Amino acid sequence: MKNFFFLVCLISFQVFSQTEKDNIDTNLNLWHQAAAEANFEKYFGLMTKDAVFIGTDASENWNVEQFKVYAKPHFDKGKAWKFIALQRNIYHNSKEKIAWFDELLQTDLGLCRGSGVLQLTPDGWKIKHYVLSVTIPNENVSAVKKMNQKHDQTLIPQLK
């Protein structure tokens, strides 16, 4: 009887975990779709009130209110940005009601990497922290480093 109970609990956990991963995957897709459709309210409604968005530029480390100021003009044009997830890995800790993920994206910037943290709220899974990075093939890193050198040398003293 103990073994049967253990097996039922194990199967229930796996089903719950897969269901939660599916919910998270759906919300991430809805978030990207809201940007593609320039649906400002829906997009930011899928983020927590204390969310952080880190963009591709070193200066882009925004709380959600700062990110709204940046994003609003893009959304007002009727098309913000279109990110299509090509691959996504989701990790989940149901006890702490958090999940984290990484995704490879097709974007107008080329291939990008997104990663972040979601929190389970009374309204469902919401993005709490998101990082967007442009991917650079290893063979191009030296050229990008050289291209960014002047900018980085100017910015580093300001950040210290």
UniProtKB/TrEMBL annotation:
InterPro entries: NTF2-like_dom_sf (IPR032710), SnoaL-like (IPR037401)
Origin superkingdom: Bacteria
Pfam families hit by this protein: SnoaL_3
SnoaL-like domain location: 27-137
Name of the protein in its database record: SnoaL-like domain-containing protein
Species this chain originates from: Mesonia phycicola
Taxonomic path: Bacteria, Pseudomonadati, Bacteroidota, Flavobacteriia, Flavobacteriales
